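Thread: "does anyone have the structure for this chain?"

Original post by V.I.:
We have the sequence but no experimental structure in hand. Need at least a predicted one for the grant figures.
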Amino acid sequence: MILCDEILRYRAGRISRPFFYAPKDESYRAVFDELTRDSNADVVKVSDFCMSNDRFPDIDALADVLDASPQKLKVVAGLGGYLALKGADFAVKVLRRMKDVNSRCVFLLRFVGEYARKVAESDWHMKEQERYFVAPDSRGNISVVVSGHEGRKGIKALISRLEEGDSGEILTDTALNLEGSLLEVAVRIPEHDAGFLGRIGARVRRFFGGEDTSQPQAITHADKPQPQDMTHDDNQQSQATTHTDNPQPQPTIHSTNSQPQNDSPPEIHSKPAEIRSDFDAIFNG
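Reply from O.Q.:
Generated one for you, tokens below.
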């Protein structure tokens, strides 16, 4: 059976509240295909809410679209990848907000399963109704390489690839700050892109702590301990940091009826942040 028992019961019911689903990463594509095979389900892609190629998605607009049709079953792809790129604090804030949308939807949450579990278990109704499932190995094996013209332009394309279930090394060309990412991030300085350092130099210095980006060096985040089991009563609303000063995007609601080179220059590496243990600090921050 590809789908877990919890999601089968959820689809058979009529609860107009979200389901958090973090399957094993190697099963992600099969789970996505199985969920979207239902002709009554629509696909909502988080990458469609990027206002431009290199802008993070508008979470306000996503919530508005989900609230607009509470009884229509929707499969939301890409939120886990986006949250993993933004980091732990932001992930928890957005997940706390998304669990309360008035919508019958399944959030596919690659890479952030442990955070999804903590948020779900902090909500009495979500826990009692079993509206979440987190597989033991849901973090995946991804490395993001910021590589100038070698990669696809913009964060929108990167999130789209994560939505599709891509794994391994993914090349991207983005000027956005990925400090705090839960995924491994590296910067590869391309040989024939004269403007690359000018576009990202300041960001690279801030992210990796280096002063001279022409001489890359390995600098890693401090290791953090694994999370401890704890309970937390979550009755308070928490708003995510969102882009509200932009015009609303025109996202596409998708109906279900419808290699990197090995001889590259040196890279600057950042290990992915470990799952944080200070959930109380994150939840109350």
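V.I.: this helps a lot. The two ends are 39 Å apart (CA to CA).
O.Q.: and Residues 5-138+249-255 form a domain with the Rossmann fold fold (CATH 3.40.50).
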